[in-house]
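Q: Please design a sequence for this.
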């Protein structure tokens, strides 16, 4: 299982059998997590849809330039399914206000990893960036002063542009959408 296709009912049954975790809980998020000793797995109607979506990691991507260490566990806390965002790899929460009004503190953003960003990265788009010193930020990426740098731009005019060396970047994610908090 490499995450390339959705789980089937058989997958849920096999995982349940191997781990002792309730099939109902795995597949639908209902009932007790652990299967009762000696109980047989409940029969689930075949036409009931399985829960599909993308993982939500309850970690923050900073919207400012303040430090935001990657010390949270790397385990999704829930699955989010929003039509139109099937291309997202995952969702996470934002913190800060440098990207207001486009993205606000507490919004949940859909991210798609750009694996080959070093060969080509469209400019003037919003990206989430992780750095070698474990900082995370969401900014508009613009051309830098030379080919070895990028400029990170905030929508909020209270924040100055900041130049970053490409060698300091470990991962780049395209921000493909945001769920606004109220």
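A: Design:
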């Amino acid at each position: 299982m490499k995450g390339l296709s959705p789980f089937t009912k058989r997958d849920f049954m096999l995982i349940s059998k191997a781990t002792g975790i309730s099939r109902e809980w795995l597949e639908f998020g209902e009932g007790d997590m652990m299967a009762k000793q000696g109980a047989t797995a409940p029969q689930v109607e075949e036409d009931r849809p399985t829960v599909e979506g993308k993982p939500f990691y309850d970690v923050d991507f900073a919207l400012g330039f303040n430090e935001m260490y990657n010390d949270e566990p790397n385990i999704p806390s829930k699955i989010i399914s929003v039509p139109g965002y099937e291309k997202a790899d995952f969702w996470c929460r934002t913190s800060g206000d440098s990207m207001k009004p486009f993205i606000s503190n507490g919004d949940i953003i859909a991210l798609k990893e750009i694996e080959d960003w070093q060969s080509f990265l469209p400019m003037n788009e919003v990206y989430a960036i992780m750095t070698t010193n474990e900082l995370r930020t969401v900014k508009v990426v613009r051309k830098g002063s030379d080919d070895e740098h990028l400029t990170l731009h905030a929508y909020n005019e209270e924040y100055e542009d900041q130049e970053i060396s490409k060698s300091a970047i470990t991962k780049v994610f395209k921000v493909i959408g945001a769920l606004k908090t109220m």
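Q: Thanks. Anything notable?
A: The CA atoms of residues 79 and 99 lie 25 Å apart. The chain is about 10% helix and 30% strand.
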